[in-house]
Amino acid sequence: MIKKIFTLLLVAFTTISNAQNTFTSKIVDSENNEVLIGATILLKGTTNGVNTNTQGSAILENIPNGKQTIIVSYIGYQEREMIYTFPQAGLVVHEIKLTPSDSEIDEIIIEATRSNRTVANLPTRTEVLTEEIDEAASMEASKISHLITHSTGIQVQTTAAGSNGAVVRIQGLNG
Questions:
Q1: Which of 32, 25, 33, 34 lies closest to 80 in space, CA to CA?
Q2: Backbone dihedral region for residue 90 (phi beyond 0: left; psi -120 to 50: alpha; all else: beta)
Q3: Among 26, 10, 68, 18, which Cα is nearest to 43's?
Q4: What CATH number is associated with residue 88?
C-alpha cells in the first residue's frame, strides 16, 4: 500500500514539476496605445514563439517553470527583453509597450531612361540555319506558302479572297 501511495505522489510531483505555462500578452505602441498587429513574442533560447493577432494579443505556450526571458519585437520598434518567473499566479494579461525606434531604413532610388525610338525603327536579330535555307530552296511553290504560314514571327493575312491577295507581316511589322 505504501508503494502505491509513494508511486502516486512521485507521479504527481513529476507532473507538477514539468508543468508547462502560458504567457498572455497584449502589445501596444507606447506613444498612442495602438495595438501592434503581427508583433513577435519569443521565448529566448528556443524556437518557441508567436505573433500577435488583429487585437494585438498573443498567447505563448509551453513555457517551462522558473525564470524565463521573453523577447518582444516589431518592425520599426525597439526590441524588449523581459524576465518573468513561471508559474505565475492566476491569469495575467501583460500589456507590453514598445517604443518606436529612431533608425530609418535606407532609401532606394530607382532611375529609368526612355528612348524616343519607335518599335518600327528597332533592329531585330533573326537567326536562320543553313539547313532550313537549303530545305526551303528545294520546295515546290505550293509548299513555300505552307512554310511561311508556319514560321515563327511571320503572319500571312489574306486581303482579297477572289484575287488571292495577301499581306505578309514579319514580327508584327509590314514586310
A1: 25
A2: left
A3: 68
A4: 2.60.40.10
Give the pairing type, strands 40-43 and 66-73.
Answer: antiparallel
Q: Is residue 26 in some structural domain?
A: yes
CA angle 68, 84, 38 (to 5 degrees): 85
Q: Is residue 109 a contact partner of residue 117, using CB atoms and an 8 Å limit?
A: no
Cα–Cα distance between 37 and 102 in angstroms, integer? 20
Last residue of a domain, one of 98, 115, 146: 98
Q: What is the mean pLDDT of the chain?
A: 79
Which domain, by its residues, includes 86? Answer: 19-98
Q: Write the pLDDT tens digit of every residue in 79-98.
A: 999 999 988 888 889 999 99
Q: Which three cell numbers stand for residue 135?
A: 530545305
Is 8 contained in some domain? no
**Helix (H) and strand (E) counts in the chain:** 3, 10
